C-alpha cells in the first residue's frame, strides 16, 4: 500500500507541476493574441490616419482651386445678365436712318456700345463664331434645320442669337439654323 500511496502522490505532484505550466502557456497565448490584436488595431488606425490626412490635403487643394475659380469667374453672372440689353443697344445703334440729327446721336451711342464690348472682351468675353461653321453641340444650339443641297451638310447657315464664352466657359450657346440634308432614295430628308 505504501507503494500505491507513493505513486499516487507522485502522480498528483506531477499534475500540480503540469497545471501551472499549462496555465502559463495559456496566459502566454492570450497575451500573444492580445498583442497581435493591438498591433492590427494600430495598423488599421495608422491606415485611417493616413487616409484622413490625404483626404484633408485633397480637400484643401479643392477648396483652394474653388477660391481661384470663384475669383476668376466672379463677373460671369453680371456679364450674362447684361448681354441682352447690350445686344438690344447694339441693334439700335446699327439701324439705318436718314435723319442727320439721329445719325449723330447713333454714332455717339455706337462709340459707347463699342467701348462696353471692348471692356467685356478684355475681361474675357468672346463671341462664339457660328456663321458658316460646322455645327458643334458644345457651342451651338440648333433651333431649326433646313435642307439646302447646294450648301455643305451640317453647316450653320444663320445665327439667330449670338453665343458667348467667358474665360473658357460657355456663357450662352449660339442659336443657329443648321443645314441638314441627305440623298437617301434620291429624296431630301
Please tag this protein with its features.
60% helix, 189 residues, Nucleotide Exchange Factor Grpe, Chain A, domain 2, alpha+beta, 3 domains, three-stranded antiparallel β-sheet
CA(first)-CA(last) distance: 121 Å
Radius of gyration equals 42 Å
Annotation field: number of helices: 3
Task: Provide the structure class.
Answer: alpha+beta
Characterize the overall form: elongated
Number of strands: 6
Describe this protein's structure:
- This protein is α+β, with helices and mostly antiparallel strands and 189 residues long.
- The chain folds into 3 domains: 1-72; 75-123; 127-189, Head domain of nucleotide exchange factor GrpE (Nucleotide Exchange Factor Grpe, Chain A, domain 2, Roll), CATH 2.30.22.
- The protein is built from 3 helices and 6 strands; from the N terminus they run αααββββββ.
- A 3-stranded antiparallel sheet has the order 1-4-5. A 3-stranded mixed sheet has the order 2-6-3, with no helix packed on it.
- The radius of gyration is 42 Å and the shape is elongated.
